[in-house]
Amino acid sequence: MLRAHMLNKNFGFGTQIRKSPYFNSTVKWGATGFSVYNHMYIPRDFGNPEQNFWNLIEKSILCDVAVERQVEITGPDAYKFIQLLTPRDLSKIAIGQCKYVLIVNNEGGILNDPVLLRLAENHFWLSLADSDILLWAQGVALNSGLNVKITEPDVSPLQLQGPTSKEIMIKLFGNSIKDLKYYWLKEYDLAGIPLIISRTGWSSELGYEIYLRDSSKGDKLYEKIMEAGKDHGLKPGHTSSIRRIEGGMLSYHADADINTNPFELGLDRLVNLDSKINFIGKEALKKIRKEGIKRKQVGLELDCEPLKGPNTTFWTILKNDKKIGKVTSAVYSPRLKKNIALAMIELNQSDIGNKLNLKTDDREISCVVVEKPFYDPKKEITKT
């Protein structure tokens, strides 16, 4: 096994930031760089990110995403409480179903965009993006008058993503796994390892999320999956910035934050203002809808040589030398052979075909507004 001294010396490890149950296995399989997400280390370097992208879209990759912490809501009023947290109408969510939801504050600002899993009548998980929703939910519960319990359970997800992921899952769990529908979940036991498996993922590819319910079995689970995948081209990997930007998937703190509302992102379908359901931020969102938005998320194509990697700062967007917005996520797509980006710009500059300029840290680049997502806009791949 590779030892910790072989990791990137520029990254400091300490006890105040948690390691995932898969940490040792990811290091063994080649992780050399980490970042911090939800107060945990996440592997972000398994070598060339373009090769990681090709591994994902041609075969499959296994990603340690234990940083997707779960907020567990139980108790007699769990359903009422979940509906209070999100503007999406949950009246039709069935036991065993998942939903992509937004959590907003009283001003309509987005606090998180998790996947909601309904495990039982009054048993829910929020599978989080990078922000402290456990604290928010506990605070809301304290003043809600509802009978609920809010905890962070011992649950740590892996993502198995890519076109061969189904064959790998069949090898592990048998043919019944083929019956698991997109955005549904099921409970499994793999040789004594307790799991919840859902047909979800942060890749825009066919895939599964495997939620481990016993952190002492992390390395055992990781190794079992890698062994099952060796004949199907499975590689260890990390979530692909290239593929998620191609798919127009949001990264919280980059493409959305507390000052972003759902309408600016085109996520109107996740906001139900015309029913009797009550949720935090409803009146604010009604006001925003009535007054209209002033800015909008768009896709951009950048006219320059291939970017060396994703942007690490927000790049300023200009029209006639006036600042009109910012690039939130940019990357070179080797499949599309284009530099692509997600950006937030003034609404009156958001028409498709509008030509703009942007300033990076050291130069100015021409760009044009284009349709997004940039690849597979109807998400047909994920539903196969």
Textual characterization of the structure:
The chain is an alpha+beta fold and 384 residues long. It has three domains: 4-67 and 154-244, Gyrase A, domain 2 (2-Layer Sandwich), CATH 3.30.1360; 70-150, Alpha-Beta Plaits, CATH 3.30.70.1400; 294-384, Aminomethyltransferase beta-barrel domains (Elongation Factor Tu (Ef-tu), domain 3). It has helices at 23-28, 49-58, 78-85, 133-142, 165-173, 218-229, 241-246, 282-291; strands at 33-37, 40-45, 60-64, 70-74, 98-100, 103-104, 110-112, 115-120, 123-127, 149-151, 156-161, 185-190, 193-198, 207-212, 234-237, 295-303, 315-319, 322-333, 338-346, 355-359, 364-370. Strands 12-13-14-11-3-15 form a six-stranded mixed sheet. The longest helix is centred in the middle third of the chain and has 12 residues, at 218-229. The chain is globular. The model is unreliable at 1-6 (pLDDT under 50).
